[in-house]
Structure formats: structure tokens, C-alpha cells
Design brief:
By secondary structure, this protein is α+β, with helices and mostly antiparallel strands. The protein has one domain: NADH Oxidase (3-Layer(aba) Sandwich). The protein is 46% helix and 15% strand. The protein is globular and about 45 Å long.
């Protein structure tokens, strides 16, 4: 799939089929995530791949009871690694660069999912402590994004975008 086609086809999906995602596609998504730009190339994040039904169901409560989360056959949880980010950049690494690293990796993963014929939805509404407990996150790892991925059951709803004149300014 061409890059600009991927951008056009990526939509948030909350209705997943129970079809499993094969390991080759999972590897492609992970490979895309780790290719994302990173502050000082620190890659100050940790990626958790959640496939077990028990853990997926645990993430439902952690995401404020968004039931669709557990219906995806795989859930990626991107965590910033505070200690790694702060080691080089101090407070700015801890409060910004680590978040950016995890966010960029998640965005690359989401675009790769589209390119692989999969669907996803970015979940930002969650209790970070509960997500950490469910995935058994390591110390200094703070969840930034929960990304359910799988095959869709329905055609995604196309959402409007704000006009460019509202979004873009030349400086």
C-alpha cells in the first residue's frame, strides 16, 4: 500500500472480529514502531504486546470500561521509560521526550497496522496505574497509549477534518 493511501485509509475502529493477527504481521508492526524517530535515539519507551484474554479483559477496567478494547485480538501498550529519558535530558526528557518517543512509536505502529490491512484505535483514556498493573510494567515505565489492533467487523466511520485554514499558519 502506498504511503498516502495508508494515511487516507487509517481510521479509528472499535468493532473488531475475533480473527487472530498472525505473527508475521505483528512483527511488521513492531518493526515499524522501533523505526520511529526518537530524541537522541534513546528510544525511551517500552512496548508491551498483550494477547492473553485475561490481560485484554483486565485492560477494559483500566481503560474506563471501554469494552471494545478486549475484543481486539492484540493490544499494544506503549510506555515511556522515565529513567531512560531523564538520564540524558533531565526534566525535559522526563516530561516531554519520553512521551514523544512512545507516541511516535505508537503512531508508526498504527500506520503499519493500516498498511497490513488491520484496524486500530488510539485509546488515551485510561488509569495509568491500573494499566501498569495489568501489563506488569517495569519501574519507571508510564503508559502513554493503549492501541487495540485487529480486523474490523464494520466499515470505519469517516470523520471530518478541520479545514486547513484553521490548522495551518505560515510563520
Amino acid at each position: 500500500m502506498e504511503f498516502y493511501d495508508v494515511l487516507q485509509k487509517r481510521h479509528s475502529v472499535r468493532d473488531f472480529s475475533d480473527k487472530e493477527v498472525d505473527n508475521q504481521k505483528l512483527k511488521a508492526l513492531i518493526d515499524a514502531a522501533v523505526r520511529a524517530p526518537s530524541a537522541g535515539n534513546l528510544q525511551a519507551y517500552k512496548l508491551y504486546v498483550v494477547r492473553s484474554k485475561t490481560a485484554r479483559e483486565g485492560l477494559v477496567a483500566a481503560t474506563n470500561y471501554q469494552d471494545f478494547v478486549a475484543k481486539a485480538p492484540v493490544i499494544f501498550v506503549f510506555c515511556m521509560d522515565i529513567r531512560r529519558a531523564a538520564a540524558k535530558y533531565g526534566e525535559r526528557g522526563e516530561t516531554l521526550y519520553g512521551i514523544q518517543d512512545a507516541t511516535l512509536a505508537a503512531a508508526y505502529c498504527q500506520l503499519a497496522a493500516t498498511a497490513e490491512g488491520l484496524s486500530s484505535v488510539w485509546v488515551g483514556g485510561f488509569d495509568p496505574l491500573e494499566v501498569s498493573r495489568v501489563i506488569n510494567a517495569g519501574p519507571y515505565q508510564v503508559p502513554v497509549c493503549v492501541l487495540p489492533v485487529g480486523y474490523t467487523n464494520a466499515s470505519p466511520q469517516i470523520t471530518e477534518r478541520r479545514p486547513l485554514k484553521e490548522l495551518v499558519r505560515e510563520a
